[in-house]
């Protein structure tokens, strides 16, 4: 990975155990760096502006500002950021809602960790991951 920049990732999720587990797993990836964690949508918007991550994993159901609205606000201010929705909801409305808000990917929280890493690399190439 010499000379290549790490992918800067922000985790937005209100479940602390999930966030901590995800951070621990991603620490093993040589090309991904977790730069911050947001416990609600409002904080995700603030941290996106402050930390300028490349990718944000975004929970949909969060307090203060849901993931859908937070995604919209972040992408209005920072159109180059890639957002991957991570949700327990497989309902088509949630998927379409997040994609309409500008998300580059949508994964269920039950997915394998390797699939998340694949999704991060895919959206960094400018592609959509579903």
Verbal overview:
The chain has 130 residues and is an alpha/beta fold. Helices cover 42% and strands 21% of the residues. The protein is built from five helices and five strands, in the order E-H-E-H-E-H-E-H-E-H. Strands 2-1-3-4-5 form a five-stranded parallel sheet, sandwiched between helices. Helix 1 (16-26) links the parallel strand 1 (7-12) and strand 2. The longest helix is centred in the last third of the chain and has 12 residues, at 113-124. The mean pLDDT is 94.
Q: What keywords describe this structure?
A:
5 strands; 5 helices; globular; 130 residues
Lay out the secondary structure.
Blueprint lengths: L6 E6 L3 H11 L5 E7 L2 H11 L3 E4 L8 H11 L4 E6 L4 H10 L3 E4 L4 H12 L6
Helix pairs in contact: 2-3
* Backbone CA Rg: 13 Å
Shape: globular
Proportion in β-strands: 15-25%
User: What is the overall number of helices?
Assistant: 5
What's the story with the biggest beta sheet?
A: 5 strands, parallel
Total E-strand runs: 5
Strand order of the largest sheet: 2-1-3-4-5
Quickly give the structural class: alpha/beta
């Amino acid at each position: 990975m010499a000379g290549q920049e790490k992918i800067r990732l922000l985790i937005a999720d209100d479940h602390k155990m999930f966030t901590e587990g995800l951070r621990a797993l991603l620490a093993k990836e040589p090309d991904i760096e977790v730069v911050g964690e947001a416990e609600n949508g409002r904080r995700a918007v603030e941290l996106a502006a402050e930390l300028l991550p490349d990718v944000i994993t975004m929970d949909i159901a969060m307090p203060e500002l849901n993931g859908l609205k937070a995604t919209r606000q972040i992408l209005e201010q920072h159109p180059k950021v890639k957002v991957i929705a991570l949700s327990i909801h497989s309902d088509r409305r949630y998927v379409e809602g997040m994609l309409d808000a500008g998300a580059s990917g949508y994964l269920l929280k039950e997915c394998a960790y390797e699939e998340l890493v694949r999704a991060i690399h895919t959206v960094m190439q400018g592609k959509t991951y579903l």
